[in-house]
Structures are given as C-alpha cells and as structure tokens.
Amino acid sequence: MLKVQNLTKSFGANTAVDSVGFDVDRPAMIGIIGASGAGKSTLLRMLNRMTDATSGLVEFEGRDVLALSGTHKRAWQSDCAMIFQQFNLVPRMDVVSNVLHGTLNARSSLATMFNLYPNADIHHAINILDRLGIADHAAKRAESLSGGQQQRVAIARALMQDPRIILADEPIASLDPMNAQIVMDTLRRIHDEDGRMVIANLHTLDTARKYCDRVIGMRKGRIVFDGTPAQLTTGVARDIYGADATFSEAATSTAIEALETEAEKARHVAEAAL
Ligand SMILES: Nc1ncnc2c1ncn2[C@@H]1O[C@H](COP(=O)(O)OP(=O)(O)O)[C@@H](O)[C@H]1O
Ligand SMILES: [Mg+2]
C-alpha cells in the first residue's frame, strides 16, 4: 500500500530524516517512537506533503506521492489526515464547525467563508461526533472542552475527510493518562472498525507496545528498529533512545516525585493556613 524509500530531509547541514525506508502492505496501526529531535514529525510531514522531501520516494498504491501537485496534492492531503499534539482547532468556534472544517479541501473558499455547509455534511459531522462520544458538545466552543475531548474533535475533523490514512503527531503528549487512553482507544477503534491505516508518533514506548501492530524506532533521523511490539526488548529500546536512556528516565521520575512531594507539602501548608 505505502512504500517509502530513501526518504531524506535536510535543513541546511542538519539531516532531520536520513534515508528512511519502510513498506506497509496492509492498513496497519504503526507507532513511531524515538527521542525528541529524532525526525518523527518531519517524517510524518513529508508523508502528507506538508514539508517537501529533499530526496527519496513515497508511493501510495502505486502513485508517486512526492510528484503530486495542485488538486492532486490537496486530494492526497485529504486522503491522509493529520492530527496534532495541540489539536489545532479554532478555539472560539463551535465544535461542529471545527469538524466541518475537515471538508475544507473539497469546498469553494467563498462557501467556506460564509459557513455555508450542506445539511448532509452537518448531519455527517454530528454522526461522527456521536460515534466518538462527544455529540453532546457539538454546539459548544472548542476551547470550553477538555484536552481529551478536543483531541476527539480533531479526530472527528480528520474522519470528515474520510481519509485512508490517519497521521497522528504525538496525539496524547498533552493529555492526562485517562484522556490519553480514551484518545488512543479511539484511534485503535477507527483502525479496527474502518480499516484505516494509522501512523502515530508516540512519546512513550508503553503506548506503542499496547496499541500498535508494528513499531518503528528512529534515532538521529534513521530507522534503528522496525518490528512487532514483542520484538521491542529493553536492549532495542536502549538503541532507540540512547545508552543512557534508562538512567535519564529514572532521573526524570525521581525529579517528578520530588516535585510532587513539594506540591503536597505546599498544599498542606496552604490548608493549615486556612
Ligand atoms: N523547520 C525546521 N527548520 C530547521 N530544522 C528543523 C525544522 N523542523 C525540524 N528541524 C530539525 O530536524 C530534526 C528533527 O526534528 P523533528 O522531526 O521535529 O523530530 P521529532 O519529531 O522526533 O522530535 C531536529 O534536529 C530539528 O531541530
Ligand atoms: Mg515531533
């Protein structure tokens, strides 16, 4: 289905993505993991043509994705919808209008400017919101929703394009654990029920292990692992994140515990003062 070969992106002397290649032969759910700066976002952005590749090949069902231009390029961008860490909704606009923005590529700019959405689209948008369990919020401003709800609105907006692929760039990095789980469950369900390919950049290894059929590990722009969650051993993880990863992870959690203890103390002091 999707073939990526020697895909490279350089920013000046810095090679963000370095001769990356992988094949996807069925609509899988794929997690891309790697430390910050490994090139995960740049890779996704090249796949949906938000960023131009320096060199290499991307093919989807035999079509040369990197050669598409004009309406063909826009059609491709509809086919592979993108979801972002910060949701990228219009905060002051109501939820259903945000979802209807997902049809933007297919409509005239004049109709869009005057919010002239066909009734069928509005019904469809509400059905999608209903499917994701947030139809009750359809008329609210996007900014009044929780992060987890906003990300589900962003997923609804993506589904409005009826995409073949959903590209998600750290979709749960800004969410608390409960909302993170709801959003990942939602992506997995869309994959299972609709047969859409999902490629998600994920910050934590555990999430990739739990939700994905296949995990691609990147380090310094290169793919250093491509396999099943079961093959993702501690040794492999060290390759992906660097030799001192375990140490720095432990250091981070110690630091967080210390902060939590401080916050707890402060809360007791505040309560005592009241
Ligand atoms: N627009 C840009 N201009 C210059 N350098 C960039 C740009 N986008 C990303 N980079 C660089 O490319 C590398 C990979 O970044 P990125 O793809 O964002 O990694 P990740 O998503 O894994 O954190 C980093 O070194 C980053 O600084
Ligand atoms: Mg990134």
Residue runs with pLDDT of under 50 for 5 or more positions: 250-260
- Overall geometric form: globular
Strand ordering within the main sheet: 6-7-8-3-9-10
Q: How widely separated are the two ends?
A: 63 Å
Task: Identify the bound ligands.
Answer: adenosine-5'-diphosphate, magnesium ion
Tally of individual domains: 2
| Count of individual beta strands | 10
What number is the mean pLDDT? 88
| Strand percentage | 15-25%
CATH architecture of the largest domain: 3-Layer(aba) Sandwich
Task: Tell me what the structure shows.
By secondary structure, this protein is of the alpha/beta class. The chain has ten helices and ten strands. It has helices at residues 40-47, 70-79, 95-100, 109-113, 119-131, 147-160, 177-194, 205-211, 234-241, 245-273; strands at residues 2-11, 14-24, 29-33, 55-60, 63-64, 80-84, 165-169, 197-201, 214-219, 222-227. A hairpin with a 2-residue loop joins strand 9 and strand 10. The termini are far apart. 36% of the residues are buried. Mean pLDDT is 88; it is low at 250-260. The chain binds adenosine-5'-diphosphate and magnesium ion. Residues 11, 14, 16, 34, 36-42 line the site of adenosine-5'-diphosphate (ADP).
List the topology elements.
Blueprint: E1 2-11, E2 14-24, E3 29-33, H1 40-47, E4 55-60, E5 63-64, H2 70-79, E6 80-84, H3 95-100, H4 109-113, H5 119-131, H6 147-160, E7 165-169, H7 177-194, E8 197-201, H8 205-211, E9 214-219, E10 222-227, H9 234-241, H10 245-273
Parallel strand pairs: 3-8, 3-9, 6-7, 7-8
Antiparallel strand pairs: 1-2, 1-4, 4-5, 9-10
The structure holds adenosine-5'-diphosphate and magnesium ion.
Residues 40-41, 169-170, 201 line the site of magnesium ion (MG).
Keywords: ATP-binding, Cell inner membrane, Cell membrane, Membrane, Nucleotide-binding, Translocase, Transport
Domain ABC transporter: 2-245
GO molecular function: ABC-type phosphonate transporter activity; ATP binding; ATP hydrolysis activity
